[in-house]
Backbone:
């Protein structure tokens, strides 16, 4: 049996059986025979071809896709040799075994989803420089004022005072923020509201956790 002269693909099942031990329609590399069958398949089943190629683009996300109703005909183990009916019709009787298989797959998916649990929140580790006005600024008070700022998703970390010249030291403090809950721009603005102690702030470093 050869598909090289076919102007259309006669059925999905026959094509599947024909390619069971082949990578190409003819020979050991792609030829115009493959192009003919490919185009014939798309012409005969344009909607299925469009759907199949689109869903294939989600391959890496298959395990995370939400549950949905699987058409009975698509879940059935066998297809009619002369007709491809992936979605059935309103008059089709639901095959009991196919329905059981569908429900089992949905249950398995739900179990895998529950086992994974929610995805961890995206977080960022930040090193913040806080510059005082001069060498007479009370750095301990400056630190206390900074760490008194509380936000959901904000955790203050270690700190140190670093000399910057002329007897002035800046506060360098680490912090971790949840990206969806804390805006770094707003946090800097809040720190700079302490006008008695803070001249300016800068993000010295940041990295995703």
Residues:
């Amino acid at each position: 049996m050869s598909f090289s002269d076919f102007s259309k693909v006669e059925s999905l099942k026959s094509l599947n059986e024909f390619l069971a031990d082949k990578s190409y329609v003819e020979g050991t590399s792609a030829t115009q025979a493959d192009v003919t069958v490919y185009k014939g398949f798309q012409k005969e089943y344009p909607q299925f071809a469009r759907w199949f190629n689109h869903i294939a683009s989600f391959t890496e996300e298959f395990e995370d896709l939400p549950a949905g109703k699987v058409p009975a005909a698509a879940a059935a183990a066998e297809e009619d040799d002369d007709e491809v009916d992936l979605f059935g019709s309103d008059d089709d009787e639901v095959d009991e075994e196919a329905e059981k298989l569908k429900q089992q797959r949905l249950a398995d998916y739900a179990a895998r989803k529950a086992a994974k649990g929610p995805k961890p929140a995206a977080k960022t580790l930040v090193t913040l420089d806080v510059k005082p006005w001069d060498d007479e600024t009370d750095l301990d008070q400056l630190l206390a004022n900074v760490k008194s700022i509380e936000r959901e998703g904000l955790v203050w970390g270690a700190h140190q005072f670093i000399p910057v010249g002329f007897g002035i030291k800046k506060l360098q403090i680490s912090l971790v923020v949840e990206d969806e809950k804390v805006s770094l721009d707003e946090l800097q603005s809040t720190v700079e509201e302490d006008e008695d102690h803070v001249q300016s702030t800068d993000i010295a470093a940041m990295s995703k956790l």
User: Anything to note?
Assistant: The beta strands are 123-132, 154-165, 168-178, 198-208. The radius of gyration is 32 Å. The first strand starts at residue 123 and ends at 132.
